[in-house]
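Many introductory courses stop at the sequence. We go one step further.
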Amino acid sequence: MNNVSIQGDIRYINFEFDPFTIPVLAAFAPIIYVIPTIFIVIKIIKVYVRCLIRKKQELINPHVFSIIVLSQFLVSYSFCYMLADYSTIRLPSTGIMTSWCASGQPSHFLKVLFMLSVYFNYTSMLFPFLLSILRLIPLYRPFNHEKLSGRIVSISTPLIFLYPFLFCFPLFPALGTCLQLKGDYHFGAVFIFYDRSWFNIKQANTLFLNVIAWFFISTVTNTMLYLKLRKLRNKRRSLKLQRAEFSLSVTTLSMLSAYITNLAFVAAFIFLPGSSAYLVALRPYGNDCDFVSVPWIFYLTHPIFKQAKVLPTEAVRQKWAAVVLMKISS
């Protein structure tokens, strides 16, 4: 990476953006798969709202459903983090912001862009753990799991959004700045970083410790969940319930890929700073993989979405059958 700011440097102030470059193509190529994924997320939300109206749904725990929807809308494999990632790495690396950034001074606005990226990075570590806990509760507390799950969701959800501030608060007095990317990046390819934080605490160190801790905890809870479901597999009669459990298991595992992506990048940033410049180009696609894979896997594998498609057809069929019977009886 680099620690020399471009702001005030006349070479960068006079930099001319070229839209016909590989970084520009790489920055806008994700539109091909992001737009269809957004439509899938909207469909998931529609089914979720429909389940809330009906209130009773045997195929999925409503608290589990709410956490999946919330995580897709807000966290690391979500749209919000992708926007933050775009504003701090992808767009600056194209050169489109270089002249503007070099013409100004280090600012709190640039700091906020970087801080949002870090903030959603922390929240992404907590949702997979919460999801696995909510799936464990009905298995170990089958009689009062709804009340217990509701209490956990109501308490843990606000805590998840407050948790990142425990590690982001040193950034409050910091100023955001633009730095030149090293390696094989062209002149003018920059990224947004920060300077003058409290206590000189490095976000990479706290991120690294958090990723290791939450990845370990989530792996333990998911292992417990897998072993428990394996014991109960033969006792379940409903094929739909088995498919629903399989879908949630695969969806939860796909969420864990965020840990691997973040761990690889942060570890390289700390221990192999020379190679981190190349991982900067790959990390956004790892985040995209999280954002794309989770909703698609959940939507394509869970029977609740197939049920949502089948129910209207069945209703029409029953209506026509009733009309035919009325005509026959008359």
